[in-house]
Write the structure tokens for this entry.
Amino acid sequence: MKEKWTRTCEGKPGSLGHEAIDAHTFAEWGVDYLKYDNCYNDGTPNKLRYTVMRNALEATGRDIFFSMCEWGQDDPALWAYDVADSWRTTVDIGDTWRSMIRIADLNNKWAKYAKPGGWNDPDMLQVGNGGMRESEYRVHFSLWAIMKAPLLIGCDLSRVSNATLRILGNDEVIAVNQDRLGVQARKVQVSEDSLIEVWSGPLSEGRWVVALVNRSPISAKVTARWKAIGLNPVQPMYARDLWKKATMDKVISGELSIRVPSHDVRLFLIWPATETSSS
């Protein structure tokens, strides 16, 4: 369910001034998810406007996920945890590599504010809409998953390709997104030209996720260093490639170095070699 102010973004009647009755109606309809957008607002401060609907939803007694979307105008990551279940940190995403990467960069800024009960929302997934290559969509899904973003499918599922399904349906990548520790991964290494990146974050049970991202127009070796991730530099680790769904044969120590094609990603789950299982 998508709602907002005097009119919705589609020009239909909005909820401004009618929050209580609309929230009650949504609950009666069995709505579980409400995206509250920012079109046609009347200029009332964002925190005040969204809090009114939050209170109305809570009064219904129904558990409705409240997705707040004020396009990141007032830096909602700083204050929205007590107002909504998720908050948009950015402007709308486009189905292009440039837009997707820019949105990821903007969302990364607010990583420390995401936690169980409140999530940074860099906008819906564009995977399958046709504006990017398969490898670029793989980068897109990987970054949204490790940033613990809401994974809202934005393509037409009646026309979805097998390649799109392979990306959207990767259960091991989805498991990282749903990890109970709920820590948003962030950039931990960036090359001087800002084209080679390592993203990482802790997971439950002493595991870590590591994304090796190549934003350059050519293939490049990407190296994740344990020290940058926050690990003991001499700690031996197992590593599992989440897109290939294969665990590396050898134990690795100090760093993980892999050649990554242009506009592509290698996504790994790593865990101490003293452990016998990754999950």
Summary: The chain has two domains: 2-177, 186-272. The mean pLDDT is 95.
